[in-house]
Design a protein that fits this description.
Length: 287
Amino acid sequence: MPRPVKTVKIKRSAAQTSQLNSVRHGQAPCTDVSLPVAEQQTTQTAIEKKLAKTQGMLQVAEMKAAALYDTGRVVKRKLQRTVARNSKLEAQIALLQSVELPAAKEDAVRAIRLFDDAHAENTNLKHKLSHVMEKCAVEAIQTHAKQSELKAELAVSKQKNRTLQKRCDRIPDVTANAVKRAKHNSDKENRTYRLLHKGTYKPQARQLARMLVAAGCSKEYVGSVIQMICKKAGVTVQGKMSRRTVSRAILEGGIAAQIQIGHELTQAKGKHYNELIQIPGLTKAIF
């Protein structure tokens, strides 16, 4: 609901009132016919200026009147609230005055004591709360630090787990390669026969040379025959026996045979053992 505007009455002369009404209704202002035209125009212009100024002042006055009206309403309501508050305070004062003085003092003392107790309890609770908050802050910092350490350990563990997982994934390939290498080395070892051991021919190689010579093979071709036979069998022979080596192997085999015969004779138990030992030629041939 719009606020009512309080109008202010302004006293005007009859001429001003007629000119104002003519302007409001769109009529030309009344002029004196007896005056010249130039003076009439000057007079009309002055009247219009005064009229415009008067209208501006009227608007300003109306605005001031509206503001004063609002201020009056606010002051009136404030006064009403003040009167109501004063009446309430007077009623409370009358109620307090009607109560007996000792009982009021006791109630006041009790209220003060309760207030002090509540204040002390509140202070104690604030102190406990601050202590608990400080403790929680310290625990939060420690928890954050521990969480950071656990995160670092978790990252290291994950890295180790990834490394071990990669190793586990590579185990079949590594095992297969190891088996392949072992098989290759084993095949290589099995397919290679070395006649020499630490610079000397093995006893098996010398025995093989003696067997070939006993079978009718020439000493000159024993090494070639051994290599050819092993090559046909798929075995690579390292080393080749010469004619002189074959001769020494035959000589060593004969000496070893004589030693073996002598050893067997010494170990034999017979009645003609002593008679055989006494024969000079046989003993010389054996030993």
